[in-house]
Amino acid sequence: MNKHIPPEVKLKEMKPKFPRKAVFIDVQKPGGTAYGENISIGIKTVAEVAKREGWQFVIKDLEEFGLRRAYGLKITVPHLLKTSQREIEEADLVGITSTSPSHWAAIRIAETIAAMNPKAMIVKGGVHETYAAEYLQNKSEYPVDISFVGEADLSFRLLLRAIQERGELRGIPGICFKDETGRVIKTTSRIERVAPESFVLPSPELVDREAAFALLDKGNFEEGLAIPTQMVRVQSMRGCGFGCEFCAIKGKSRRVEPESFVKYLDAVLRAKGTDTVFFEDALFTIESHPAFSTLRRWTSDFAQEVRKRIPQLRFGIQSRSDCMDEKTIKMLYDAGCRSAYVGVETLSNATLRSINKALEAEAQIRAIEAIQKGGIRITASLICDIGTDQDFRRTVETLDRLEVAEVFMEAEKVFPGTKIAQGKEEEVFRFYDQPQSISTDNREDNDSFLIREIGLINERYAMAKAILESNYYKREMGHWIRNS
Ligand code: B12
Ligand code: SF4
């Protein structure tokens, strides 16, 4: 391996030039591409920052192939990167994003890039780096020069300026790197509550189109439409605020103002020639919950703006059943909402309490009925390996009886930064450093730190199959779509 040049030295040695060049890489989806073939919004957001700073860049999507599969076929990382060899050799900066399950793949890629272009500044961000930055930078050989901790809309801009103006790394908030002596430097956290208007939204040309999810595909629901619908994914929100014990989303929820968001949405849809959207906001209707009343008017203002500007809009959201009251359901339907991905987890009260979900099963059932009655199709998301066999069986039978349009389940996982990772951080970090050779029958569990026995998890998938297969078709193990 080449001797690693510390980032502060790299920065000093960079020759003045303009425009500068960057390569951004989205690594892989451990679960394959069943839930979308699209490049992550995170890497598009940092690419947008680079664009605004006048940098030239390419975005390389290795997800189309998947490093896990590539390894199975004995294809090496250099081979995968060959199509971008010239761009990588000419790059001043290479930016990589990953979740925890795709972290090991990102590191293989960073190692290869460091060998291909030892002078390039290699930076990495995303949810894994957010929680593991210091641990990772402490390693004797870590091929990433600078780890970004948390949202990078501001800190990445400051890095690009520091490169351009030969500035200092130490004044940039929310980064972690090694100095010349090998000491780990972690700068102050990013500013927690930057104004919503300082959100960077990827410009329309950076947003991709993809085949719509089954519940948003008009061909499945509107007569005479056989052409598969195309959709885009956008996001108006950062953070959540609920703090469920297994969830890696932290921080208070913040949103782009509804008016400017709808203007942005209109521009994206026109550029992409579609009217179908899936919102990646963690909890689209959060302000319908009494605990989040400060955001109270967001959904109604959004719905009003949509009716004015994009009356043909069709969209899907993610939410919780206690954030979907009748008024909200009607408002959403009138604005074009046709699907809601709802985190049900289980319909056993004891198990709901044990995972801190702050929801009662009866209330969830009432909400599911109301949402469906309101014309919005539901994807019910479950954690398959919590509670007893009987709890799980009853949960799946109830969803079948309620005729929910889609049932999606996966095993409970431990991700860094979550409440369930507390006390075993080192073990969790170490796990995600390596590719894992074992997994359950559901590809969504690939490369993840599972809590329970694989045998038990697979039995639960089989149990769900036995219940659902007469009325649902199997998209993947753990992912069922209702026949009618
Ligand atoms: C959208 C999404 C997906 C989509 C992605 C497709 C798409 N077109 O975007 C799909 C469905 C494919 C997906 C798949 C998976 N996802 Co997902 N996903 C999300 C979701 C809902 C939104 C992510 C997002 O777009 N955020 C918006 C951007 C702007 O924020 P961001 O990504 O954090 O990026 C900012 C910073 O992190 C930083 N940053 C990020 N990358 C980089 C790179 C550089 C170079 C720099 C400088 C900065 C930087 O700057 C950005 C701007 O501030 C999040 C939950 C959430 N609400 O955040 C879960 C989430 C990221 N997913 C998660 C997981 C686990 C998965 C899966 C493994 C599925 C599974 N089995 O659970 C797969 C694997 C994906 C992979 N590549 O590894 C977890 C990750 C937990 C963890 N520690 O790993 C999350 C947090 C959900 C959760 N509740 O726990 N996902
Ligand atoms: S699971 Fe849903 S409600 Fe809970 S913290 Fe995560 S995004 Fe928020």
Structure description:
There is one protein chain. By secondary structure, this protein is an alpha/beta fold. The protein folds into 2 domains: 7-186, Cobalamin-binding domain (Rossmann fold), CATH 3.40.50; 209-412 and 452-482, TIM Barrel (Alpha-Beta Barrel). The chain is 35% helix and 18% strand. It has 17 helices and 20 strands. The protein has helices spanning 7-13, 41-52, 67-72, 77-81, 85-90, 103-116, 127-137, 153-165, 218-221, 258-272, 298-309, 326-335, 349-354, 361-373, 389-401, 425-432, 454-468; strands spanning 21-26, 56-61, 93-97, 121-125, 146-148, 175-178, 184-186, 210-211, 230-234, 237-238, 254-255, 276-279, 314-319, 337-345, 377-383, 406-410, 413-414, 449-450, 472-476, 479-482. The chain has a 9-stranded mixed sheet. The chain has a 7-stranded mixed sheet with strand order 2-1-3-4-5-6-7, with helices on both faces. A two-stranded antiparallel ribbon has the order 10-11. Strand 4 (121-125), helix 7 and strand 5 (146-148) form a beta-alpha-beta unit. Helix 15 runs parallel beside helix 17 (454-468). The N and C termini lie far apart (57 Å). The structure holds cobalamin and iron/sulfur cluster (SF4). Cobalamin binds at residues 29-31, 35-36, 38, 40-43, 45-46, 95-102, 123-128, 148, 151-153, 156, 233, 235, 247-249, 280, 282, 410, 415-416, 444.
